[in-house]
Task: inverse folding
DNA sequence: ACCTGAACACCGTTCAAGT
DNA sequence: ACCTGAACACCGTTCAAGT
């Protein structure tokens, strides 16, 4: 066997990442497996390990595809947006996590194997999201980047918390506010509180 | 084989739940398995399925043990606390999630098998946490329970978001504020914003 | 009624052996 | 150099068969 050379290494990488991305969208991260990716692209699991080295790396590359697509969409929409950028970003986060639920969830369900750190190239893709909000916040805080950074973190993390608890059914156990109402309440009142401080 | 009757059904349940709880503490939820629980208590996997019916049910019972212990500790500590109850709860959440990281994480990493809903008895155990904060908030909002409920949700979810992103290394990619600083900023400014609204 | 053992259909990971 | 096939050590789930 072997040495098919039907595809170059780059083609094979793209093939696997696209198939994996599709599989997550169809079945969710919990049912995702490298073996199914291999099956779908017509290669064996061994080949995937030859290319990606590990399951973690394969997932990271698939999640990176999600992050790239999401960031592009978010940045473009933010530029066109005429209303309050903070409210816009909160709404956008909720909408994206709903419309691309499986891909969004995979970003947070995957954890590196014990001992391994998230690689720098992946961390940078995450950082861009914070920077996007940070930049939008700068005019509000007298161009104080440190202050904007802290606010961006609190708001991103807060919106994420509302989002993840809402999607996993842990927020509707008492009362019945929508995730959007909660996220907008967070944005409005937190920013108002910061202003009055 | 069979019909050992070394333990009653109740004893067996407790045995499995305790062993499972211990296993999660030792190896984390991602390496947890029903087979290891069976091995540790000296029964077979079949017996666990006979008792619990499914993997989901076993995990729910183990997570319920965590929720009960946590709630008891939190409620008792809140009563003794003399400072601001909201700041106290934020700090307590962060501290508990750090000190009992694996058990805390298991609460949020487990998802029901597709189609199955979280049972009512488990949802009630979750609801108590919201009620705890709601009650502490009531004096601040003129005993308006609906308003307190909304604030409690935003704060719990927000603190949770800061907590989960912090523990999974997704908050320290830019800048360097501690999770506690972010959580206290959220509590202080959000509440201030609500007040000024 | 209770419990086992074995089977089924899966996993991630490794690697000698072929081309 | 590239790729396979098979093996290893695991999973959750089911169930006929024993006591």
Result:
């Amino acid at each position: 066997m072997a040495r098919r050379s039907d595809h170059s290494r780059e083609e094979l990488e793209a093939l696997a990442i696209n198939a994996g991305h599709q599989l997550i969208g169809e079945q969710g991260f919990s049912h995702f497996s490298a073996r199914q990716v291999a099956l779908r692209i017509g290669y064996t699991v061994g080949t995937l390990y030859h290319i990606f080295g590990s399951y973690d790396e394969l997932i990271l590359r698939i999640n990176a595809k999600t992050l790239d697509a999401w960031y592009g969409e978010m940045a473009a929409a933010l530029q066109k947006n005429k209303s309050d950028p903070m409210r816009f970003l909160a709404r956008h986060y909720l909408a994206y996590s709903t419309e691309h639920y499986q891909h969004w969830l995979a970003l947070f369900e995957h954890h590196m194997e014990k001992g391994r750190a998230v690689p720098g190239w992946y961390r940078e893709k995450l950082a861009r999201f914070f920077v996007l909000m940070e930049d939008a916040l700068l005019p509000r805080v007298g161009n104080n980047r440190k202050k904007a950074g802290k606010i961006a973190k609190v708001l991103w993390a807060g919106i994420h918390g509302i989002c993840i608890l809402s999607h996993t059914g842990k927020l509707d156990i008492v009362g019945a506010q929508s995730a959007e109402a909660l996220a907008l309440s967070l944005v409005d009142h937190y920013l108002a509180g910061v202003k009055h401080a």
Summary: Chain B has a mean pLDDT of 95. The CA atoms of residues 19 and 40 of chain B lie 7 Å apart. Chain B touches chain A through 52 residues (CB under 8 Å). Residues 1-5, 9, 43-44, 46-47, 50 of chain B lie near DNA strand C (CB under 10 Å from a C1').
